[in-house]
Amino acid sequence: MIKKIIVVTIALLLVVSYSFAAEILTNADIVKMVKAGISNEIIITKIKTTDCNFKLTVDEILKLKDEGVPEEVLNEMIKKNTSQAETKNSNVEKQISSSIPMSNTQKNEKILLEAESKTELFSGNYKYLNATLDKAMKEKIEETPSWKMDAKYVQQQIKLAYSNSYNNPDYWLIYAKFCGLIEREDCVRKAFRKAHALSASSSKTSIIKGDTFFFLSKVTEDEISDEESDFSIVEDSLSPKIKYAQKAEKAYKESLKELNDKYLKTYVYYKLGLLYYEMFKDKSSAEEYLKKAGKSGTNSYWARKAEDKLKSGL
Q1: Which residues contact 272 (CB under 8 A, 6 or more apart)?
Q2: What angle do CA 141, 143, 144 make, to 5 degrees?
Q3: What does pTM read for this prediction?
Q4: 299: helix, coil or strand?
Q5: Which of 11, 229, 235, 293 would be a feasible disulfide site paired with 269, CB 3.0-4.6 Å?
Q6: H helices of 101-239, where?
């Protein structure tokens, strides 16, 4: 009889302990807590102390935002997913590496490589991610559904790089451009402030700002009248499209003050030409900048694009 009681007690304890251990937070749990009025601090503590299985694609993040989940909580959800993935990868690496003896030299090399990877991880991927975002922006403007696939890829890279690249200004520039792609201006501003605080290259920052705001000027839903494209109108009366266009114009021109790279200068001249033509309806200024791009002497892709645009007529 005593043995049976002991067995039952142990079984009950195992069930109870399993029920606690098995708790895994999901997106639905977070929404439930937010709608119940639980404070951000308590929700964040719960995320930090519980295993989680969040789905954080672009669409899911937008759904969470629509459900009222604050950015502070969203950021913690992204951090948790990233830290869990890194822990899992680290455990696998440890299991593999622990079985292989290492010399002191190999250990030192490993330490150096790990230190370097934390700073170079994102910088090495910067150009590719920037190009992927450009492609996604073009696809979104053209209403091509494939832009979402590119956006999800960049989002995944941003999540994976968060802990190691938090203090890398390039990380925040890509994050800002990504926020522009999903049309989150508040997020764009915060990311640019973070990049600036980390002493990001001013010319690189200005170009990314120009690209981001030029894109937003194209996708923002409002009508532009002939009057709204008149530079004499005060800023407060301008449409959101023109306001974004003016921010892009300012950013591109700021980049030219410090740019020495001829290729990048050609790119900025070309973008300014398009900006004046498409958004401000200013053919004279558009022609001026497109000619600068075409005569840059680089024979680059952007120089040829500018020449083709001039030949086809404005």
Answers
A1: 249, 252, 253, 285, 289
A2: 110
A3: 0.60
A4: coil
A5: 293
A6: 104-123, 126-141, 147-165, 169-181, 185-197, 202-219
